[in-house]
Design goal:
Elements lengths: L10 E10 L11 E9 L2 E6 L4 H8 L3 E4 L4 E4 L1 E6 L1 H7 L3 E2 L6 H14 L6 E6 L19 E5 L4 E4 L1 H7 L10 E5 L5 E7 H14 L2 H16 L3 E9 L1 H13 L5 E7 L6 H17 L8 E9 L33 H14 L2 E6 L2 H11 L9 E4 L5 H10 L2 E4 L12 H5 L9 H6 L4 E3 L10 H10 L20 H15 L17 E5 L11 E7 L2 E5 L1
Length: 548
């Protein structure tokens, strides 16, 4: 007995622009557009023009016709660097991004505390070091409940005294690769930095949340991302609790979102401990890999090699200039011993895992490229951020086939105002994206949300103009010679991210045979007008999942 599966008539979109995939776009690449696309049963059947035979035939067969009215169809975007659970959690936190002083911060926290008397804790986000020192004493009088303030980059958490007591900070030792700031008597003063955030604050706050809380965070993040034009993302700090939450949700019902994840490695001076972490990542990878679950799986490991410029924890080849935190270490320190890093990378690569190395300072970037130089380029390893790369290392990325995972929103001039005082002339090497691309490195464009805005066209705007998205009245331009092209950036934010995790055969571009993930925009293809672009619809596997 033969069972026939009836195909649906499908959907055809006409009357607008349909972005045709550019295979190797560069700075001057101009976009090419069709004006029709036909999808059926979750797959793209045809991309081209309204008078193509395929379009005529599908209309005659009863396909639902969607008039684009001049709008633009782009692929479903894939955020190349995200922290999904943190994003969902952050959506309900007190936003401090608008603050400039400690008075602004105190006002925002106090107003939230009064308006939300039943919340067990006050969680905040968006603080930057120029606004205030992270001292518990500066917020203790605002509310007796524990107060946790995330820095914008998520590399520091500022705690009130009640939060320090709740987490037992006085009994905690500094983790390797991290620090709890203390006074002369050894008493914690309020700040957890780097690995102290990832290995202490994050697990604690996740543990006091309910399973329902965590599931709600994931749903909120997915809904927000669908509404921003994303159909997938790459999570860059996966850990046990978040993974368990995602697996539970996946068993019940698939979300309209695709997620590839990198398992976060904790720095340690014990090579045995570090290699055992790789063993766990391999175990999780084998349990649910791309073949078993193409839309939710672990692809590799993530290693944070250094910190950030603003906190003077990025690892540099030359000392920081005099700055608020420059005395911590003259040039910053690597979070990993090079020998142990190489051992971890070698084991992961041999197992077939992909490797993602966070490296911001020039010395950290060199160390990371050196580590990956012995690995197989077939595994499509990557480096995250790459904010202060030397010309030599920018070239090596392409030579070694290392993906440059970049977040242009971090290059926003408005948030780099402290850099000249910390780096001096070295700012001339900040965010050299043009060199990465010209050197042949594959680009994957992401946001690093929730540390930064996840607005797709805002990200492309900074990449192409090197001007501020956060404050359009700010006239500073950061290294315009390192800019990317619009077409180049759009492809990096869709196909580039897909390629980086071996999704490129299914996702990332509007081509026949690929999954019908697409977005519809009201926009002008002009870098100076990108901030006026608005997302109108998001389609996931041939189904509309969001509409304005």
């Amino acid at each position: 007995m033969v069972i026939r599966v009836l195909q649906t008539p499908g959907d055809v979109f006409v009357g607008g622009k349909v972005f045709l995939h550019a295979k190797q776009p560069g700075l001057e690449t101009e976009p090419q557009f069709g004006n029709a696309i036909y999808i059926r049963d979750g797959i793209i059947e045809h991309v081209g023009f309204e008078d193509d035979d395929a379009i005529t035939q599908c209309r005659a067969a009863g396909a639902t016709v969607h008039d684009l009215s001049g709008k633009t169809v782009l692929p479903g975007f894939i955020d190349g660097h995200i922290h999904l659970l943190r994003l969902g959690q952050s959506l309900s936190k007190v936003a401090l991004d608008h603050c400039e002083t400690i008075e602004d911060i105190r006002k925002a926290i106090k107003e939230y505390a009064i308006a939300n008397p039943n919340e067990p804790r006050i969680l905040c986000k968006g603080w930057m070091r120029y606004m205030s020192k992270p001292l518990a004493s500066l917020v203790d009088d605002l509310d007796p409940r524990p107060i946790y303030v995330d820095s914008k980059d998520l590399h520091t958490t500022w705690c009130s005294t009640s939060a320090l007591k709740e987490i037992g900070a006085d009994k905690l030792e500094d983790p390797e690769g991290g620090k709890i700031e203390r006074d002369a008597d050894g008493k914690p003063t309020g700040a957890f930095e780097e690995a102290a955030v990832f290995t202490m604050i994050w697990p604690f706050l996740a543990s006091v949340a309910t399973a329902k809380d965590r599931e709600d965070w994931v749903r909120a993040a997915v809904e927000t991302y669908n509404g921003s034009g994303y159909t997938g993302a790459i999570d860059m700090a996966m850990e046990e609790q978040a993974w368990a939450t995602l697996l539970d949700m996946h068993k019940e019902k698939s979300l309209p979102f695709r997620l590839a994840a990198y398992w976060l490695m904790r720095p340690s001076s014990s090579e045995t401990d570090c290699l055992s972490q790789v063993d766990r990542a391999i175990e999780v990878w084998k349990e649910l890999n791309a073949e078993k679950s193409p839309d939710l799986h672990v692809v590799g490991i993530k290693i944070i090699c250094d910190g950030i410029i603003d906190a003077c924890t990025a690892y540099l080849s030359e000392p920081y200039l005099k700055g608020a935190d420059a005395l911590k270490a003259p040039a910053g320190n690597p979070f990993w011993d090079a020998k142990i890093l190489n051992a971890v990378v070698s084991k992961a690569d041999a197992a077939g895992l992909q490797i993602a190395l966070h490296a911001i300072g020039d010395a950290a970037i060199t160390m990371a490229v050196d580590a990956l130089s012995t690995c197989s380029p077939l595994n499509r390893h990557r480096m995250e951020h790459l904010e202060l790369a030397s010309a030599r290392d920018a070239k090596r990325l392409g030579e070694l086939g290392i993906t440059a995972s970049i977040q242009p929103v971090h290059a926003d001039p408005w948030i780099l105002r402290a850099w000249p005082g910390l780096l001096g002339h070295r700012c001339e090497r900040a965010f050299p994206y043009r060199e990465f691309s010209d050197g042949g490195a594959p680009l994957a464009l992401g946001s690093d949300s929730p540390t930064s805005p996840w607005d797709i066209m805002g990200n492309v705007y900074v990449a192409t103009t090197r001007k501020s998205y956060r404050n359009t009245k700010y006239d500073e331009v950061v290294n315009y010679n390192y800019r990317l092209g619009v077409c180049e950036s759009v492809v990096a934010a869709s196909y580039g991210s897909a390629r980086s995790v071996f999704w490129d055969k299914r996702l990332g571009s509007l081509e026949p045979g690929k999954v019908a993930d697409l977005t519809i925009w009201d926009m002008d293809w002009d870098k100076e007008k990108l901030l006026n672009a608005t997302i109108k619809e998001t389609w996931f596997a041939g189904e509309k999942v969001w509409g304005a």
